Request: fold
Amino acid sequence: MTRTSYLEEPRPTALSPHAVALAGLVKTYGTGPARTTVLDGVSLTFPHRSFTAVMGPSGSGKSTLLQCAAGLDRPDSGSVTIDGIELTALDEVALTRLRRDRLGFVFQSYNLMPTLTVRQNVTLPGELAGRRVDAGRVVELLTRLGLAAHLDDRPANLSGGQQQRVSIARALLNDPAVIFADEPTGALDSRAGAEVLALLREAVDTGGRTVVMVTHDPIAAAVADAVVFFADGQVADFLYRPTAETVAARMAALGGVR
Reply:
């Protein structure tokens, strides 16, 4: 079954074309009797300047959706379009370049190099790509994220919340069109998690980014403009203008957060 986008409801900030458009995504794993359909004909669109949370029980397909939408995995069929570019038509070299230049990633594990300083961790992807990195912009960005005193510290000397802010700085440095976040507050305490969510919210409201975030936390989801719920590889429900209470109630109806 193919579901149309939950964000077709008129929204004053929505622009056309959509930042991300998924059409008829199918993804399976295994063969024969062990074959499992993880995405079953999923179609969604995410407008520019929107913040969407993706939720669902364990095994519902939400993380696979994010992986396919971000070009980190390829669907068996269907299409993924980001900023008007169809990812499924790109070879691996072009796909890597698009991820590097147009997308930002924030994960539960911060993915920082322990032997590098904060500043070096932020600039590393650009340097590996052979791009000139604006050192002044790096300092400005880290200062804005409250890390001015930690430019030359290594990750081990930072709290979890500070490390996640470094990963957000790295994601923002190249002005990505879309930021994909997979459980970005999952390893943080409530205060640090709230700070990270506020930064992602700011990236949408002030920076004009589009954020797609997988989360299990109703409080985190309440920061988004809308929530899409997954169950059994399909879109099960939508929720606009979420609150923690309404998100928790919808998740309970789907079998709970696991």
About this structure: Residues 190-205 form the longest helix (16 residues).
